[in-house]
Design goal:
Order of helices and strands: EEHEEHHEE
Largest sheet: 6 strands, antiparallel
Helix content: 10-25%
Structural class: alpha+beta
Strand content: 25-35%
Shape: globular
Distance between the termini: 25 Å
Amino acid sequence: NSNSIMMPSTKVPKQGSPDQVAITPEPPYYAVIFPNTRTAVDSPGYSATAERMVQLGSQYPGFLGIESVREGQNGITVSYWRSKEDIARWREDAEHRLAQENGRKRWYGSYCLRIAKVVRQHYFSMPQTQPPAPSKL
């Protein structure tokens, strides 16, 4: 069972399906990388809180997009921001702080938070008119 959220910023026209990578502007900008492992118990409120954080974060100045995938208990979310100052403002949001606290108390067995400066990017997208080539095993 895998879940994913791939959301371009509302400032950039949405391209294709919700499983597409976030469409971001030309670098430089910043990525907040959040690999995590959920606790064994699926605590109530996690999904609703995760959706709310995407909704709330996407309204913040400097938010550029988000990509998130989960396979079982392991997941990774990468959000993109125009500046370190924008990230700091988001980090201090009261509702986000409460979600962080709940994450540490109930939802995450472990996580790491990394902030990286994106200096280069390259997009690839297979044309929609051609089906993927069959794999040769």
